[in-house]
Amino acid sequence: MTASRFDLAVIGAGEAGIAAAVRAAELGARVALLEKSPQLGGACVATGTLPSKTFSLSANMFELAGRLKHFGVLLSGEPALDFGEVAASRQRLVRCDQGVIQSHLRANKVEIIRGSASFLAPDRIAVRREGGEVIEVAAPLCVLATGSRPTSLPGLPADGRLILTTDDIVGLTEVPSPLLIIGAGIIGCEYAFIFRTFGAEIILVELLDRCLPGQDDEIARIIEKELARRGVRFLPSNTVSGWEEAASGGLSALTSGGERLAAAKAVVCTGRRPFTAGLELQAAGVATGKRGEVPTDSRLRTSAPGIFAAGDVLGRRMQSSTAILEGGVAAENALGGDREPDERFVPSGIYTMPEIGAVGLTEAQAAASGRPVLVGKCPYAGLVKACSLYAYNPGLIKLVFDRESTRLLGAHIVGAEAAEIVHALALALKLGARAEDLAYGVYHHPSISEGLREAARDALSGLKS
Ligand SMILES: Cc1cc2nc3c(=O)[nH]c(=O)nc-3n(C[C@H](O)[C@H](O)[C@H](O)COP(=O)(O)OP(=O)(O)OC[C@H]3O[C@@H](n4cnc5c(N)ncnc54)[C@H](O)[C@@H]3O)c2cc1C
Questions:
Q1: Would strands 134-138 and 124-128 be described as parallel, antiparallel, or unpaired?
Q2: Are residues 97 and 222 in the same domain?
Q3: pTM metric for this prediction
Q4: How far does the centroid of ligand 1 lie from the alpha carbon of residue 345, in Å?
Q5: Quick one: average pLDDT of 31-40?
Q6: CATH number, residue 389
Q7: Residue 394 CB-half CA count within 13 A
Q8: pLDDT tops 80 at residue 173
């Protein structure tokens, strides 16, 4: 078998792998991008970020359609949902995104090699193509970016029919109702709002005593209230311990609280696990951790010289946003750079209804770090832009500061445009902004961002007490 030679091979064409391949090519390397799926873009495009965001967009449009009369826009008849068109809009976005990715890779002369990659040696990779042909790629440098897979629950293996993973949701052809969602983390909550808006009855089961672990308590409470207001049945401190197929179709699930729940389908939203199956990492000398993750040092170097890793396979944040940063940095470091990806202030967008934007420490985390905390808030009801959008309830901007220095420690927003506004706060955190900087900044009027000034002023007024 003759080998094709490259300066650097990237395994996996998800967000991390694409970013790595493009950055390495920009730096002048001859790059091979190895991908086993016919589609480029990984989970972000196939089953994760883009699909869930197109569902979310359709749900928000549907809801807005019901409020259009407030803006003087009259439609004849009640708005209705065509779930077939919802799926079609996702496919259109995927096609558009495939075009963007392909032309980006082509412009940078990245060679895409289709097939499943496995190491023969640290600098030699076998790629098994569809149809069984195996080719060899030789490269002294490599970036591993093989991503993650959904986890399953004991006693509840996904079958793609009644018990679904988040990967299966994109294959739905109709809205299942009642829908049992197991796990009220980010993805479980997003899908609870989306499918409730699409008209499904939703039962949301969560092991912990609240939704959205890791998010600020006050924001999570607002979301729980909103779930209840919209008729989602939320069962905290509960899990599903068993299930059986119901004679009438669908399933009957048993909760740890002893309740039987009837549902058309269940979807398991309990997280994702790094994916390295079939890579033969031992042939390359790459060590893995207990969950199958590939540990690296702060410069994304694995245990094998010349082999770097980026994205979900690291088993850390599991977000497209950080995967993109890590992919580029891994490629730079492989080619002689010495950069640490700065992930101290990662902004999160959560597409619940209303959406959430969050960055930095929650109030509880800041308090637990032992420093005196100063909190400032601005409800959306105090913002004319939110009122004009009829989007003021619920809505809250909450800023967490260090009481002594008044430096910003964290920001938590629930309400319209929260996932956009949060970027300004991520920058403010990085630059060490103080409450005064935010309170005496100039903000476009009317805007939701004006609430940053009001929340910072609220915090400063708390200094006097
Ligand atoms: C429902 C859902 C919603 C999400 N929403 C968001 C969001 O709003 N914002 C956000 O930032 N993140 C979001 N995420 C997370 C995001 O999708 C992932 O963090 C991101 O896609 C990870 O990118 P990656 O490149 O590390 O891995 P992946 O996207 O998993 O890509 C890995 C690639 O490697 C390929 N591969 C694996 N093994 C091999 C092999 N042996 N040979 C060749 N190819 C191989 C796979 O086919 C795949 O294409 C969401 C995830 C889900 C599930």
A1: antiparallel
A2: no
A3: 0.95
A4: 21
A5: 96
A6: 3.30.390.30
A7: 23
A8: yes
CA atoms within 13 A on the CB side of 368: 6
User: DSSP assignment, residue 110?
Assistant: P
| Enclosing domain of residue 231 | 163-270
- pLDDT tens per residue across span 346-397: 999 999 999 999 999 999 999 999 989 999 999 999 999 998 887 778 999 9
* One domain for residues 198 and 303: no
Question: Which residues are within 8 A (CB) of 297 and not within 5 positions of it... i.e. 6 or more apart?
Answer: none
CATH number at residue 232: 3.50.50.60
What count of residues does the chain have? Answer: 465
Please indicate, yes or no, whether residues 20 and 142 belong to a single structural domain of this protein: yes
Cα of 19 from ligand 1 centre, angstroms: 13
Give the distance (Å) from ligand 1 centre to CA of residue 16.
8
Same domain for 279 and 130, yes or no, is yes
Query: Is residue 38 domain-shared with residue 143, that is, in the same domain?
Result: yes
Atom 21 of ligand 1, nearest CA residue: 44
Residue 60 has a pLDDT of 95
Which residue, judged by its Cα, is nearest atom 38 of ligand 1? 146
In a domain, 154, yes or no: no
- 45 lies in the same domain as 90: yes
Which residues sit with their C-beta closer than 6 Å to ligand 1?
Answer: 11-17, 34-37, 42-44, 47-49, 52, 116-117, 145-148, 166, 187, 275, 278-279, 311-312, 318-321, 323
* Residue 21 shares a structural domain with residue 131: yes
Write phi, then psi, for 137 (nearest 5 degrees): -115, 125
